[in-house]
User: What shape does this take?
Amino acid sequence: MSYKINIDSVNLEMKVPASKSVLHRVLIVNFLLQSLKGAPSKEVIDLITTPLDIDNQDIIATRGCLKALYEASKTNSDERVVMPCNESGSTLRFMISVGIACLNFKGLANTHKLVFKPKGRLINRPLDQLIDCLKEHGVSVVIDKEAEEIIVSGVMSEGDYKIEGNVSSQYISGLLMASVVMKNSRVVLVGKLESSGYVDLTLDSLKFKGIEVSIDPIENDNKAYTLNLPNNVEDITSIEAESDWSSAAFLLSLAAVSPKAHMVLGGLNKDSKQKDKIIVDIINQMGVKTSWENRNGEEVIVVDTDKLGDGIGKLTLDTKDYPDIVPYIAVLAAALTEETVFENVGRLKFKESDRVKATMDVLSCAAIPCSENVEAESFTVVGKRS
Assistant: This one.
């Protein structure tokens, strides 16, 4: 059986939805700051924890976990605080630190424990570095695969929370956000920081709410992050997050492989710390032209094509900072390059699926030659221009 898909034309003008990466952080930081006030109003908590129709499943998971923490602070009836993280790796890695810090701050850590309920492959994804970091401060993280639960308990001690910089930026971000309610503590980054863009998103979310973050060099070229909280925390009346470059990457990729496309995307910050904005540079390299224009006081990105992009020869991409959009780029590589090598794709193998294998399988079904170098953590796509 064979398949052929023709995209003769694309005509789309829209505002891109809010960034999932940013919105996770905005919700958590606002919740923690409101918790500092002691008893935030129901209206404020509802604003943070009530799912919206436009929310994806990961954001719903984060809202659900924050709601569980709020309800735990209102009653002592159940020592098990069930955290519905579902298949969201971001929610789990953020909320392990944030959740136990909240229980500690509320004086519930002696009597309550967090019970995360992961789904799919999430329970099998690594947490070792975060577990070791928290263990040094009296926190136990037990992964019960038979019960499909991750149980977090213990009273947190003050001090330096040391975490490796080259394992998961989400561990670092979770600890940084948890520091809002962690007294006399700081996050110590050990070694070189990878995926720095995601940590920058966290720092921006903190700074936007008036939280100063001091970054000081310490021994062995490590860095210490210390939070200085604002004197006053105001009630919030809305939750806003910049538009999502990951979603934009999908749409821009669609335009790039359409022989005739007119696409106008609004809501995007061209100076964003979101690493997925690199999609613009990549499609430009592949011969697809983009431009920024001001329309009615808003900057929008525009793609207009009357033919498939001119394409290029061989291309090598270091994907360590933008792994989530690699599948999109692989399709572009098949259409617009002679050959593209995707480097530093190791993390893609441990998502909700092995995304390297899944991407190669789909391309192979379309008779696109591709091969993986497991040792080098790379794979290669041979495009139709070869």
The longest helix spans residues 57-74. The chain is about 35% helix and 25% strand. Residues 102 and 274 are 27 Å apart (CA to CA).
